[in-house]
Amino acid sequence: MSKKSAVPFRGTKEQEAKLYEVIEKYRNIDGPLMPVLQGAQEIYGYLPIEVQKIISEELDISLEHIYGVVTFYAQFSLAPKGEYQIAVCLGTACYVKGSGEILDKIKEIIGVDVGECSPDGKFSLDATRCIGACGLAPVMTINDEVFGRLTVGEIPDILAKYMN
Amino acid sequence: MNMVNLKINNIDVSVPAGSTILQAAKSANIEIPTLCYMKEINEIGACRICVVEVKGARSLVASCVYPVNEGMEVFTSTPRVLKARRMTLELLLSNHNRKCLSCIRSGSCELQALCNEYGVDNDGKYDGAKTESEIDDSAAHMYRDNSKCILCRRCVAVCEKNQAVSVIGANERGFATHVGSPFEALLDETSCVSCGQCIVNCPTGALSEKDSTAKVWEALSDDSKHVIVQTAPAVRAAIAEEFGNPIGTDGEGKMVAALRRLGFDGVYDTDIAADLTIIEEANELVERIQNGGKLPMITSCSPGWIKFCEYNFPDLLDNLSTCKSPQQMFGALAKTWYADKMGIDPKDIYVVSVMPCTAKKFEIGREDEDAAGVPDVDAVITTRELARMIKRAGINFNGLADEEFDMPLGSSTGAGVIFGATGGVMEAALRTAVETITGKELGNFEFTEVRGMEGIKEASYEVGGLNVKVAVASGLANAKELMKKVQKGEADYQFIEIMACPGGCVNGGGQPIQPASVRNFDDVRGKRAAVLYNIDKNMPLRKSHDNPVLKEAYAEYFGKPGSHKAHKAFHTTYVKRSRFGTL
Known about the structure:
Chain A is α+β, with helices and mostly antiparallel strands. In chain A, 45% of the residues lie in helices and 11% in strands. In chain A, helix 1 (13-26) runs antiparallel to helix 2 (33-44) and helix 2 (33-44) packs antiparallel against helix 3 (49-59).
């Protein structure tokens, strides 16, 4: 199944100009792909096909080679971050307290998988390692707000506040 | 040469410095199994099947990449080595679709052969989760079934390094790692050129041609159809391998006999269409040279190359000869002149091609390949598929006496048959073009400078006061290099021959599959090419324009080469495509 982001690309002319600057900077070094991808992700927040195509043409590296690198490293993302970035902690303490079920419930409600963003750009979902709030397990964050001692039953109400 | 002395299994071995343990062992007649290793293009030491023990080394080493050194002592089949190889095989099987009975590669699968050799059975010792996958059957020419993939990356290496196509690679990491295309696109959404080199380099049944034999069986049993078959030059140079004969066996006579027994109404030869291609193409070249047309002119016989050019060099499409490929010319000739002569409605003629090529399966569906208003060619089967049909029909190939092609479309010259090897189209074209330009008969018409297996070849000839410079490339990475020169105006050739597959059609994606253990050490393509040059040498007629049937066809039907009628039947058009396919 295609992994092209369902969120329409909203790159600006300024971002593109910056991307070309990054490409120029690294074009002639050995192994330019990693620094260019890192720079591109800094500019756009993620690495959609539109950005990977520009890099492919400019560096004469195949799109597949680039996609292979992007999907190898967890640090690179194919999906943009949503207006509301949901992160569910899957650290040991949270996990044994049931954060797995919480994650499943969120997926069900917002209809996106881990690492993805909803087509309207509203929600993105991440599963994180321990965020150091084990006393509040299970924990999730939405942008800067922290929600602790969660139960699956609370999730619909919490998300409903962000839905409108 | 600097030699290194070592001992392998206590036997003294002396090999050139820089050799790997694998090569040194081979020279001492010691076989070490490999899976991921492909000479020069996939030396990644990843699969661990080739591990051996080196005295003094802490762990087992991968012999395919480990260089020899003076005084080294190597052991290739100690209990420790055998145990490690067996475990590797068991682990590979744990994530492998073990539906071997009906697998297309059963009997030619490198994994199966090794499991058999090492006594690894199917009991699923390490069974657990399996990497999920779906079959990709989107492309016209092939299937990809990742449940049978062992991640050796030979397909990835050949696609990127030999072919510069690079539409498949390893996506994701760890247990999720799989061979796929960018953004998990289907193959037909990418700029895949259908060359099939991935298939012939796959050790298992993960990659296979789309089987068209069912269509052919059906046509053969339909009495309302006049079913005729054409066989490409390179098929005869390899098909005997499918029946246990050595590489380099000429299988033409037995192949013809087998096709006749399968029930075709006419057993014909693509060679006549190769001759026809040369007559049209040489005429086009002479015209371009004399009238200031677009140069260099580039051959258009190889549909993998055509697609590659459309994707990657859309600005050079005017350089391509407008001639259809021989396969399509055959269909066009059969459904126009031949249909007329035989008094058969072209709609009732069913043309089957036997090709060394998977891209031919794509080619028959291209636009502007329908001289009589119906597709020029109706079905394409590869050399492998024909062998499968012969076996299924219970025909004892090796026991057959040689037979000859039917007339009229079985008439050919030596120039037609060498089309199957890199440089062959160029040589055939020169034989005709030089005589056309000078108006004199050639004494020596063997243009040996353009023969051989090098990736890029160049030559120049003095022709009637003209200095004609030519170049030949096979393997699309070589073609890309040459085209970049043409784009920059750095190449002053008049004529270029390109074949998509390294070595030409003899090494095509539809040819019999030889395991890596053979391909890495034997000159498979050279031996197959030698079959074709040998046939050429023994032909009474060796120049395309001397083909008597084509002389008749022009006189009766098409007029002159390049005439309006010939143009309509034998020439085609190309489309600009994006280097990213439809992604």
